[in-house]
């Protein structure tokens, strides 16, 4: 069994299809049904035959499959490099993350000869956080929403301390384990900020500081889900009306009632700096979703959202949670005040995660708040640093050189199709990472 921090790196991806059992085998993993899908890959449930543990297997295309682009462009060196760069970044970041509220990476299976890269993750049996009904009503009680929010705050606080800006915090990227604990997932657009990491650990030499400043220009590029974008990510200069051809925001709001329109010239007198505060805003949008069953800002497309988010206020429904608690009294007023600080349009005035942890509504129900705060300090975890070299080498840069030399008999639970009976399965001599060495990866790549 793997330790809590070990990440196995495998450079040979081999597959056998067991038509009798109806499943495929990826190395030592039995591959089952699809349990998730996103812009960065799809996820299948699996089982490690060496430990009998359930896992999640994220299948990522090495070459981008952007719809609408000609195949020649999708396969161009620049597009391939961009796609692989994103995969490398995700792997390098996940290798460094070890926290009870962050999904753990167990193994990277990266065969340069193949079209797919496989990330083996801990299996989150509870799946995505379920936060609304088909009628856009909340399914969580206020207490359940608070518990989930509290876990995300701790996980995000750890990431920020480590210099990692997630950039895509939303309910779909929050997963529940079998015990009901929430964990942050999907680091496909995450960013490692040297500047943020150095701010957490202290001083550094001038060369390192300069590299940190150069590194963070990537943050200005929009990534993630538009409905969760912070106002500073939506800023396109003073004339946002050019995005939709409309000079009025009055017809852009989709909620009931009127909304106050903010003066962007006053809010952003110059191009705003993009910082970890974008995650805090997305955290606020996420809390709104958990409590009210809908997003605070709606638009027909992302360009409309670019106008609405920085210019207009969101609405607070009369009740929150599936237990229908009023928002105009008691606990409801505390929640409204917290949302206002999380979704403060000026990033310089936005609440910090350190402050969020001390908000009375967040601490409610904790027997010893001071002890809880002390036990969950992010600096109690070892500091990490994702170097440029680590990011570049996170996936294989050269072709696979062949198969392991030591052979073992295949476990009896595997039915070998008769047409492949002459092909002997080969394993690594390390029992903890035994590997099937088989052909037919295309069956998993194209049929899975």
UniProtKB/TrEMBL annotation:
PROSITE patterns: PROTEIN_KINASE_ATP, PROTEIN_KINASE_DOM, PROTEIN_KINASE_ST. GO terms for molecular function: ATP binding; protein serine/threonine kinase activity. One of its GO terms (biological process) is signal transduction. Keywords: ATP-binding, Kinase, Nucleotide-binding, Serine/threonine-protein kinase, Transferase. It holds the Pfam family Pkinase. It comes from the Eukaryota. Signal peptide: none annotated. InterPro entries: Kinase-like_dom_sf, Prot_kinase_dom, Protein_kinase_ATP_BS, Ser/Thr_kinase_AS. Gene3D superfamilies: Transferase(Phosphotransferase) domain 1 (1.10.510.10). CDD domains: STKc_LKB1_CaMKK (cd14008). ATP binds at residue 58. Residues 29-362 form the Protein kinase domain. PANTHER family: CALCIUM/CALMODULIN-DEPENDENT PROTEIN KINASE KINASE-RELATED (PTHR43895), SERINE_THREONINE-PROTEIN KINASE TOS3 (PTHR43895:SF152). Belongs to the protein kinase superfamily. This is Protein kinase domain-containing protein. It comes from Hydnum rufescens UP504.
